[in-house]
Amino acid sequence: MTEPGPQDRFTGLYNSCYSNVYAYAVSRVGRQHAEEVASETFCVAWRRIDAVPDEALPWLLGVARNILRELYRAEARRQSLESELAAWISAEEPAAADVAESVTERTAVLRGLAALSDDDRELLTLVAWHGLRPAEAAKVVGCSTATFFVRLHRARRRLERAMAAEADTITRTVLSRSESLVTAKESTR
Known about the structure:
Blueprint: H1 6-29, H2 31-47, H3 56-89, H4 97-115, H5 118-128, H6 134-141, H7 145-188
Helix pairs in contact: 1-2, 1-3, 2-3, 3-4, 4-7, 5-7, 6-7
């Protein structure tokens, strides 16, 4: 009897173990992310089909556990960055008029960054804050320099749109507050 090929082996593995891997993921992260974890687990199994032992379920659950760990680490990084950005945004504004403009601009940039995806934020901060050249940043991200330039350009455009939306929100807030003040002054006359 011949041994099944990689595709047949993977199909058998998937059919026999998917429900167990999915149940494990549900018990750890709930249904919202369980499908993603199970899918990623079987992607790893497909890429490493020759390394999957005959007793595949414990190996698959170990892979799922590692994926869950990475999911938790990514969430912790995201929350840490969000709280750091929030701390910068909520910092006291200096009283001096010339400094106020730079603080307002900085706040708009930080709020714009907070509205972007993690990938866009990473591209922009690698170049702007960490001072990497595009070729170096491309290595960090794991893409070619040309691809990095395209992604960076798109991220910059999204940042501009996010900052413009933030400026519109601030303008509407200021206008509504000033209208409220005018109305209040008129009603006291």
